[in-house]
């Protein structure tokens, strides 16, 4: 078992608050790479293999000793074959692996996903892979703790930016090589002036070729404008859309920056919520657990059919209490029958399907994405596939309460 510890300078968005009762608060960070097996960042320079999981120590090093969970962007780089990667709290003893998944990988295709994971024994999280081998690149976006700075407020999903038509006050058109676009988020779409971070579902649409997209706080004028050595999306090109949830600290002028490393692409960003020091909801991390799987009938009556809403009960299962107001879910679309988009939203009798997307999938290719979604009527969340039937797998990672 490889165990690595990494120490970095913490640059929280605001000063810590008093300990929270009944849950934890969030401190956003300027994103930083804490593990990269390609160059030894984080102290490990070997590919992840089924026989050799990696334990990465973050508590007390990259985040304070009282941190309970971390938000990581995890990218599987050049996987050798089909497989899945699981990220979970390092157990006190033993090698048990939970029956969940965070990334579903395919041969030589880089795959990112945002992961909110509870810290385990020694302040560590474990990365394990099935069937394939892969390099790992892991970027830290923030952490939860009793003395954290901010609480979360979900919003009804709304499109904050769309480069195809200029939504968000940006110039319409593809984002080109080594180019960036800044998006004003404070004071728009219900995000208040004291917000310190936002949660965005970002989709690269119709990319011309392979690239990586980086989302980070807009630097102040006069500061270095060099993009950080991180990545949030890794589109493969060939017109294949790729989404990923992003938690990003708000930068200068109330803006966040989107940077494109290589081939031209459109970008779409949907706002899911924000963190601020006033108001909001508190977070509790759980040991990851599977609460829905249409393949086996767990939680669902059948396959999610195209154009038909399917509801899943998310309270009272997987450690989520009845008073939870929002849940953190890893949602995987499996065996999609064609190209479609998946939408996840609070259940409501007769409620309209929102005009946003959480996953964009193609025929036969399993794709995951993290979703933070308010709990709807009867403790349920709704799933909708626009164009084709698909199987849906749902793993819970935590929940919010007032």
Structural commentary:
- It is a single chain.
- Strands 1-3-8-5-6 form a five-stranded mixed beta sheet, with no helix packed on it. A four-stranded antiparallel beta sheet has the order 2-9-4-7, with no helix packed on it.
- Mean pLDDT is 94; it is low at 1-20.
- The chain has three domains: 2-145; 152-276, Jelly Rolls, CATH 2.60.120; 282-401, Jelly Rolls, CATH 2.60.120.
- It is an all-beta fold and 402 residues long.
- The chain has strands spanning 2-5, 25-36, 54-57, 69-77, 83-89, 103-105, 111-118, 124-130, 135-145, 151-162, 179-184, 197-205, 213-217, 242-249, 255-260, 266-276, 282-293, 310-313, 326-334, 340-346, 359-361, 367-374, 380-385, 391-401.
Question: How is the secondary structure organized here?
Answer:
Blueprint: E1 2-5, E2 25-36, E3 54-57, E4 69-77, E5 83-89, E6 103-105, E7 111-118, E8 124-130, E9 135-145, E10 151-162, E11 179-184, E12 197-205, E13 213-217, E14 242-249, E15 255-260, E16 266-276, E17 282-293, E18 310-313, E19 326-334, E20 340-346, E21 359-361, E22 367-374, E23 380-385, E24 391-401
Parallel strand pairs: 1-3
Antiparallel strand pairs: 2-9, 3-8, 4-7, 4-9, 5-6, 5-8, 10-16, 11-15, 12-14, 12-16, 13-15, 17-24, 18-23, 19-22, 19-24, 20-21, 20-23
Brief summary of the model shown:
By secondary structure, the chain is mainly beta. The protein has strands at 2-5, 25-36, 54-57, 69-77, 83-89, 103-105, 111-118, 124-130, 135-145, 151-162, 179-184, 197-205, 213-217, 242-249, 255-260, 266-276, 282-293, 310-313, 326-334, 340-346, 359-361, 367-374, 380-385, 391-401.
């Amino acid at each position: 078992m490889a165990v690595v510890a990494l120490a970095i300078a913490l640059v929280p968005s605001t000063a810590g608050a008093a300990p929270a009762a009944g849950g934890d608060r969030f401190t956003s960070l300027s994103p930083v790479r804490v593990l990269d097996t390609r160059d030894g960042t984080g102290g490990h320079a070997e590919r992840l293999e089924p026989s050799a999981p990696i334990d990465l120590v973050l508590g007390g090093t990259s985040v304070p000793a009282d941190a309970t969970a971390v938000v990581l962007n995890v990218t599987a780089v050049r996987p050798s074959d089909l497989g899945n990667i699981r990220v979970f709290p390092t157990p006190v003893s033993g090698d048990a692996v939970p029956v969940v998944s965070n990334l579903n990988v395919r041969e030589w295709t880089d795959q990112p996903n945002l992961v909110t994971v509870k810290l385990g024994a020694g302040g560590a999280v474990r990365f394990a892979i099935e069937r394939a081998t892969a390099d790992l690149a892991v970027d830290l976006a923030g952490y939860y703790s009793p003395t954290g700075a901010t609480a979360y407020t979900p919003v009804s999903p709304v499109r904050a930016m769309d480069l195809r038509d200029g939504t968000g006050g940006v110039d319409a058109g593809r984002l080109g090589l080594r180019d960036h676009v800044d998006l004003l988020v404070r004071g728009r779409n219900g995000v208040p002036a004291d917000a310190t971070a936002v949660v965005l579902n970002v989709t690269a649409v119709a990319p011309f070729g392979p690239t990586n997209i980086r989302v980070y706080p807009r630097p102040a004028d006069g500061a270095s404008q060099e993009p950080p050595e991180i990545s949030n999306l890794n589109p493969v090109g060939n017109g294949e859309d790729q989404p990923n949830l992003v938690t990003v600290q708000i930068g200068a002028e109330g803006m966040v920056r989107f940077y494109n490393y290589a081939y031209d692409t459109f970008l779409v960003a949907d706002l899911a919520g924000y963190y601020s020091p006033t108001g909001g909801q508190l977070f509790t991390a759980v040991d990851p657990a599977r609460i829905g799987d249409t393949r086996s009938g767990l939680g669902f009556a059948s396959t999610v059919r195209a154009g038909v809403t399917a509801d899943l009960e998310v309270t009272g299962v997987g450690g989520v209490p009845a008073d939870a107001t929002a849940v953190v879910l890893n949602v995987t679309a499996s065996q999609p029958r064609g190209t479609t988009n998946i939408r996840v939203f609070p259940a409501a009798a007769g409620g309209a399907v929102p005009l946003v997307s959480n996953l964009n999938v193609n025929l036969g290719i399993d794709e995951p994405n993290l979703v933070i979604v308010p709990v709807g009527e009867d403790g349920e969340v709704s799933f909708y596939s626009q164009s084709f039937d698909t199987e849906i797998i749902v793993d819970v990672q935590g929940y919010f309460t007032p």
